[in-house]
Amino acid sequence: MFKRMTRQEKERRAAQSELKDAMRELHANEVAFEEAQDPFYIEQLTYQHAALMCRCRALLRLLRAGGEDP
C-alpha cells in the first residue's frame, strides 16, 4: 500500500532536489569559469559561485539537521 508522506519528508525531498539543482548550477559555473576570458564575466562568475556555495551549504545544513529549523 501507499504510505502518505509527512510534511517533513516532503520538505526534505524538496531540499534534496534543490541541492541537486544548485550542484548542477555550480558545476556549470565552474565550467564557464574555466572557459571565460572577459574579466567582467569572470568577476560575475566569481560572485555567482560564492552565492551558489552559500546556498549549497545552507541546504546541506538543513538536510543534516533532519529538516528541523535551528
How would you explain this protein's 3D organization?
- About 80% of the residues lie in helices and about 0% in strands.
- The chain is an all-alpha fold and about 70 residues long.
- The protein has a domain at about 25-55.
- Helix 1 runs antiparallel to helix 2.
- The N and C termini lie far apart (about 35 Å).
- The model has no long low-confidence stretch (mean pLDDT about 90).
- This is DUF2508 domain-containing protein.
Briefly summarize what is shown.
The chain is an all-alpha fold. The chain contains 2 helices and no strands.
What's the β-strand tally? 0
Radius of gyration: 16 Å
Poorly predicted residue ranges: none
The residue-averaged pLDDT reads 91
Shape: elongated
Structural class: mainly alpha
Protein name: DUF2508 domain-containing protein
Organism: Candidatus Gemmiger excrementigallinarum
